[in-house]
Automatic annotation (TrEMBL):
It comes from Olsenella absiana. It is found in: Cell membrane. Its EC number is 2.7.7.41. The keyword Cytoplasm does not apply. This is Phosphatidate cytidylyltransferase.
């Protein structure tokens, strides 16, 4: 209050006194500064629109990578739990599981083949996919000749009676169950070596070495991959990931050797770790080459984050077959 009893800034008659000029200047400068800040923010946002539209912002990349990792991990965990329950459930549950997986992998292979213009006989091919693991369980490895001959003979009859079929369709129909089911059936033979816990652990070691190979190769390649392994076939695979995955495979086989499962020594375990690990990568690249040949990214959508079951099992097909032969040569099977 002033000495006259009026509020400061008001005259005796109650009229407003004009504010000092420097107050109006500060307010004007503040408005200009705020407008400039808003313009800079809008300009910055506009400059990022291109990256935002393609998901290239740092936050979008981190969020997308995290979501992909969680989806892939959850899907892989469910897959692993089912496998473990079957392995430790006994030879029969293992055979049933491998038969189902082989059938699904063969079905996805035929789907890819049809996208490439081929017309396989899926009824005969998928029947063969079931026959391989079941015959392996019942009569052993020697039955592959009987199953293969029966498949080829039935396809020969189909080829003769079906004018629209060509030789490539016959070849694809034979190759489908041989590639997926016959090679997958080696897991049944490995599991049969011991119906108890040791047989389950050995089979888990064989499959686990390829899981470790895939998982470690993925993480190492994602973080440190700089040198492309096969850019024209699988652009995301790197030599760094390859060596990381190979180390994971060897580590699992070293654990098998330390445990001495079924008499496996450290020397055989080391050989298996290296050779099986390399074979698993070849299997992965082989399936990638098949998909790239017809222009598809995934063999199916059964396993979110992984694609189809064939995508998840491609390394297993080659790796478990090589493991079976190495264990057979080593006198374990």
């Amino acid at each position: 209050m002033s000495e006259t009893g009026h509020p400061s800034g008001a005259g005796a008659g109650g009229e407003e006194r004009p504010l000092p000029a420097d107050v109006d200047g500060r307010e004007a400068r503040a408005h200009i500064s705020l407008d400039s800040a808003i313009e800079r923010i809008e300009s910055h946002r506009h400059s990022k629109e291109g990256l935002r539209a393609v998901g290239g912002l740092k936050g979008q990349v981190v969020r997308g990578w995290t979501e992909k990792l969680l989806t892939r991990t959850t899907s892989g965990a469910i897959y692993t739990i089912v496998i473990l329950l079957c392995l430790f459930g006994g030879v029969v549950p293992t055979t049933a599981c491998i038969t189902a997986m082989a059938w699904l992998c063969c079905s996805e292979f035929f789907r890819i083949s049809r996208m490439g213009g081929r017309m396989p006989n899926e009824i005969l091919g998928l029947t063969g996919a079931i026959a391989y693991p079941v015959s392996m369980y019942l009569w052993g490895f020697g039955t592959i000749h009987v199953v293969t001959f029966a498949l080829v003979l039935s396809l020969a009859v189909w080829y003769v009676l079906t004018p629209r079929a060509n030789l490539a369709d016959v070849a694809i129909t034979v190759f489908g169950p041989v590639y997926t089911s016959l090679m997958f059936s080696c897991i049944v033979l490995i599991r049969k070596v011991d119906a108890g816990c040791d047989g389950a652990l050995l089979t888990l070691g064989v499959m686990g070495s390829m899981w470790a190979n895939d998982a470690i190769a993925y993480f190492v390649g994602s973080r440190f991959g700089a040198h492309k392994l096969a850019p024209k076939i699988s652009p995301h695979k790197s030599w760094e990931g390859f060596y990381g995955g190979l180390a994971g495979s060897v580590l699992v086989w070293m654990i098998v050797g330390i445990l001495g499962l079924e008499g496996i020594g450290m020397g055989l375990a080391l050989v298996c770790g290296v050779v099986v690990g390399i074979s698993a990568v070849i299997g992965d690249l082989f399936e990638s080459r098949i998909k790239r040949g017809v222009g598809v990214k995934d063999s199916g959508n059964l396993m979110p984050g992984h694609g189809g079951l064939l995508d998840r099992s491609d390394s297993m097909l080659f790796g478990c077959t090589v493991a079976y032969f190495l264990l057979h040569i080593g006198g374990i099977l």
